[in-house]
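A reminder before we start the practical. When you read a complex entry, don't treat the lines as separate problems. The point of joint prediction is that each chain is placed relative to the others, so the output describes one connected object in space. Small molecules and nucleic acid strands, if listed, are placed in the same frame. In the example below there are two entries. Take a minute to note the order of the lines before looking further.
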Amino acid sequence: MTTDLTRASASELADLLASGETSSVEVTRALLARTHDVDTDVHAYLHVDHDGALASARDVDERRGRGEALHQLAGVPIAVKDVLATKGLPTTCGSKILEGWVPPYDATVVARLREAGMPILGKTNMDEFAMGSSTEHSAYGPTRNPWDLDRIPGGSGGGSSAVVASFQAPLAIGTDTGGSIRQPAAVTGTVGTKPTYGGVSRYGLVALASSLDQAGPCTRTVLDAALLHEVIGGHDPMDSTSIDAPVPPVVEAARRADVKGMKIGIVRELTGDGFQAGVQARFDESVQHLVDAGAEVVEVSCPSFTAALAAYYLILPSEASSNLAKFDAMRFGLRVLPEGVDAPSAEQVMAATRDAGFGDEVKRRIILGTYALSSGYYDAYYGSAQKVRRLIADDFARAFETADVLVSPTAPTTAFRFGDKIDDPMAMYLNDIATIPANLAGVPGMSLPSGLADEDGLPAGFQILAPAAADDRLYAVGAALEQRLLASWGGPLLNRAPHLTNASIASADATAGATTSADVTKGEGA
Amino acid sequence: MSSIDTEATISYEEVLESFDPVMGLEVHVELGTNTKMFCGCATEFGAEPNTQVCPVCLGLPGALPVVNEKAVESAIRIGLALNCEIAQWCRFARKNYFYPDMPKNFQTSQYDEPIAFEGYLDVDLDDGSTYRVEIERAHMEEDTGKSLHVGGSTGRIHGATHSLVDYNRAGIPLIEIVTKPLRGAGERAPEIARAYVATLRDLLKALDVSDVKMEQGSMRCDVNLSLMPKGSTTLGTRTETKNVNSLRSVERAVRYEMCRHGAILQAGGSILQETRHWHEDTGVTTSGRPKSDADDYRYFPEPDLVPVAPPQERVEELRATLPEPPAQRRKRLQSDWGFSDLEMRDVLNAGLVDLIGSTVEAGATPAGARKWWSGEIARRANTDGAVDVATYAVERGITPAHVVELEGLVKGGRLNDSMARQVWEGVLDGEGTPTAVADARGLELVQDDGALEAAVDTVIAANPEVAQKVRDGKVQAAGALIGQVMKEMKGQADAGKAREIILAKLTG
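Here is the predicted structure of the whole assembly.
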C-alpha cells in the first residue's frame, strides 16, 4: 500500500474501501496512530473514542464482507465537534459545566453518521459553548494551528478544522453560528460549509443561538464537503426549523465544478479596508481564476452589513442567555456546593455551579443577553437587532438579484498568535465580520483555501455565499476554484504545512497551555 | 408607620358598604392529549415519578421542541368556544426564570401573540340572570414539573430538608385562559367567580379537551382581586391567590380576599402586591412571594419553534366540531326531560346531566333516570366517600343500562320502590345486575292476588273506622290501610295493586 491513508480524502478512501484495497479498521487505526503522534501538540480532540471507532470500523468491514449494500462513505472515519450530543460519549461543549456528562441520546447529525456506517473517532475541541474565534475559550485548553503551533486554529470549531488539517481525520462535523466552521477553515487551509439554516437538523446540537446555529462539514476538499453535506442534510421531524425539502444537489455540483456564465458578486463592504494585504491578494487572484473559468464578476453593495456585527452581538447573547439557563446543576453535569453554606438552597447551588462552571466569555455573553432582553431595553436592543437582521436579509435578496453567488475573503486576517486578542473582545469579534451576515440571513456559505498570505506564509480563506436552499452553487463555484488553485499550486495547499510530531513543541508553552485534561483519553495507535 | 394587621378581615357587608371588587381570573387547563406539548412522552396522571420523560421535556442539552398539533387544535377549539378571535399567525415565547422544577429554566409559553383573544363567556347565575365574562386571551404553554418538599411540616419549601422533583408533568400541554378585569360584580363577585369557573369547566368537558379535574390539578384557578372605593374608577392594588382548586374554594377565596383587603384599606393601609396561597382546610390565604410589575421574565420569541399559522379553512373546520354550548344544552334537556328548575339545578350541581342523558337514551324515563341517579346511587356514593357520582359509577361498574333494567323491573311490577332500593344495594356491592340481585335475594312482589286480597280483608276488618272514612269518600285515608297491608305482606306487595283492591272493596 503506497497511499498514506491519513492524507487521503474521504472520497479517495471511499473508493479504496469499495474496491477492497483497504479496510475501515486499517484506515481507523492509521488515523488513531496519527492522533497518537501529533495530538498532544495540536490538541484537536477533547475525547478520542479509540475502541468505539474501531468497533464500528470492524462492524462496517464485516458488513462489506457479507456483501451488504453500504453508504458511499461507510467505513470513512469522522470527528465530531464536542457540541453535538453523542450517546455514550462525553459531550462537554468545551465547558467545565458539562464535565463528565454522557448524553443518553444521539444528535440527529450523529445518528445519520452512524447510520451511514462512519466510525466516530472522537469529539473535537472548541471555544466554550462555541463562543469565540480561537478556541482559547475552551475550558480544556486551546487547539493549536497545524500551520504554526503558536497560532490559533480559529474558532469556535478550531478542533474540527485542525483535526482535518493535521490529517487526524478526513472529515469532521463543525457548527457555525457566526463563522465557526468557515473562519477556522480559512486559517487552517481547509474547507468548511455552513449549510442553509434549516438544511441540517439542529436536534442534539447544544444550542448557542438557536436562530443562527447550523452544523456542517469540515474537510480538506470541496467534494468531500459535498459528500458529507449529503449525509447529514435533509429534513428532521425532531427539529421544527428543519427544511422539509430534499438536500440541494451538492455532490453533483461539486463534481461538475462548472461556473460558466455564473455571476460572481463581490461584496463591496467585505473587501479592501480592514483586510490583511496577503488575504486580499489571494482573494483577488481567486476571483481571477473564476473569471478564467468562465464566470462573470459583478460588484454588489450590502450597506446593512456594516451593522451586522452589532446586531449579531445582541441576538446571539440574548438567545444564549436563555439557552444556557438549563445548566443549573439540577439534572446533569457539574454540581458545585457554595462554600461556607450549611444547607444550601437549590438557588445557591445553581449560582455556585454557574459561577464555577462557566468561563469568562460565557458569563460575558449571558450578562449581555440578559440585559438586552430586559424589560425596558428589549425594543432598543433585541428589537432593533431583529430589524437590522431583516435589512441584512433584504440586502442579500437584492444582491442575489444581480449575482448568483457572493464572494469575499472569509476572515480579515490569517491566524493570529495565542493571546493576541484574548483580552480584547471587540478585536476578537471582528474576526467574524465577513461570516456573520450569512448566519443572520440564514443563507449558506463556504470557505476554501485561497493560498498563503505573502507576509506570513499562512493560509487565507475564500468565502462563497449563496441564496437560501441554493447550497449547490457553493459547491459548483468552490470546486471550480479548487481545481484551478490546485493546478497553480501543483498539489494540495496542506502539503506545504510543516511536518508535525509531538516533539514540535519542545517545552510547554505558557500561553497556550499544551496539557490535556485528565479525562481526555488518547488513542494508543495501531 | 402604623402597624396594620394585614391578615385581619372585616365582614363581607362592611366591605360592600365602602368598596367595589374587581376580579381577574386565570385558569390553567391541562389538555387531555396523549402526548406532551413538545415531545412524544405520555401524559398519564399518577405514573411513577420521572417515567414519562425524554431529552426534550427534561431539557437536556441539544434537545428541541416540536409542537403537538393536537394541542394546537384543542387550543383553537377552546378559543372558538369562548367566542375568541383566532390568531392567523402567532408565535411561542420563552418566559425566562430559574426554578428547579422547570427543566430548561424557561417556560415555553405565549406572550404578546396568543392563539386566541378577545372573547367572552356568558355565565348563568342562581337568580336566573346572566353575567358576561370578557375573555382577554387564551394561550398555549407547557406545564412545569412538580416539586415535593420533604422534611418540613407543611409540605412547603419552608423548613424542608430537601426537595424531590417529578418531571412527568413537565411539558404537559396547558391552556391559560385569562379574563379581563371583571368590574361591577359587587356582592355577587364570589358567586360570579364560581359560576364562571363552573361554566368554563362544563364547556371544556363538552369540548372533550381536558378531564378538568380540579382536585387532580388538571384545572387550576388563580384569583386576582383588588378593591376600589365605591365610586372610584382607579383600580386598586391586586393580589394573586394561587392554588384555588375547587369551585367552592374559588367562591370562598374571592370572599376572603375581599374581606382581607377591606380590613387593610379601612385601617388606612395599602395592599402589598403579592401572590397568596389559598388553604382549603382553614379557608384563609397566606402571603406568598412579593410580585411586582418589575418581575422581568425577559420574554422573547421562541427561536426553536416556527410560528403557528392555522389556515382559515382549518379554523372553520374546527368551529364545525364545536359541541352545543352547555348552557344551551341544559335548557334544551330541561325542557326535553320536563324537569323543574329546582330539579334541573340539583341534577347540574350533582354533575348528573350526562349520566341522565345517556340513561334516557338507553331507554329509561327522564324521571326514573333522575330518581335513581340522584337518589339511591348518589346517596351511596356520598356514604362511600366518592369524589362524585360519575366517578363512583365507573368504579362500581354501574351503567345506564342498569338503571334502565331496574326501572323495567319496577314498571313490570316485579319490584316496588323499597325492594328496588335493596336491589341497588346489591348492585352497588358488586353482586351483579339488578335482575341477578333480585333473583339472588328473592325479591319479588307477591303476584298472588288471593294472598293480597286476604291481607286487605284482614286489614279492613282490623281498622273499621278508617275503612268507613274511605267508604265515605275520603279516598286519601286509604293510605293508612295500604301501609298496613304492606306490613302484613312483609313488603313483598305492589302498593299500587293493594290500593286498587282496597278501593274496589270499599267504594266499588
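Discuss with your neighbour: The first helix of chain A runs from residue 10 to 18. What might explain this?
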